[in-house]
Amino acid sequence: MKKFFVTMVVLMASVMGVSAQVSEPKDTPQLEFALQLKVTLGDAFSCGETQHGRRTVIPITGGTFEGPNIKGTIINGGADYQIANTAINRTELEAIYCIKTDDGVYIHVRNRGIICSGTDAEGKPTFYFKAAPQFEAPADSKYAWLNNALFLCAPDFSQEFKGIVLNVWRVK
């Protein structure tokens, strides 16, 4: 009976012209540059191999940030918590820290992402490093816009800066 029902549904769909093809969405999200963080880092240390993988902690010691509508400093005291699975060359990260705008507003940041490397179908090396920061700004501040959007970030590696540079975009 079940086989008969599935056959009838497939026949009806084909008679009615229903297609299983997926069309490209008309409202593709756009990205808008929001800010760049220049994060200074302390010496990393490891908690060793845990039940989840190799745990590494990288202290966040400060830095600066700037964008079209925001500017300030990164507060010392946060950290980037990473868990690495070396068998598949994949690291999950979660950085937790605070920033302070030039006009004295504190904003909490939680940035989760992945880093992975490998090879593509042609055997060429690949590297992927993306994260999704979430901001927690005072709701009554001019920075409340950070609370009501999704953000993506990617690193910008620089020989001149001793730390990590993260470019952040707002998903429109």
Structural write-up:
With 172 residues, the protein is mostly beta strands. Strands 1, 2, 3, 4, 5, 6, 7, 8, 9 and 10 form a 10-stranded antiparallel sheet that branches. Strand 2 and strand 3 form a beta hairpin.
Could you name the key traits of this structure?
single chain; 172 residues; mainly beta; 1 helix; 8% helix; 56% strand
Which structural category fits the helices and strands?
A: mainly beta
Tell me what portion of residues adopts beta-strand conformation: over 45%
Alpha-carbon distance between the termini?
49 Å
Biggest sheet descriptor: 10 strands, antiparallel
| Count of helical regions | 1
Query: Mean of residue pLDDT?
Result: 90
How would you describe the shape?
A: globular
Helical proportion? under 10%
Low-confidence stretches: 6-11
Q: Radius of gyration in whole Å, from Cα?
A: 22 Å
What string, H for helix and E for strand, traces the elements in order? HEEEEEEEEEE
In short:
This protein is 8% helix and 56% strand. It has one helix at 2-15, and strands at residues 31-41, 45-50, 53-67, 70-74, 78-85, 90-101, 106-119, 125-136, 150-155, 164-171.
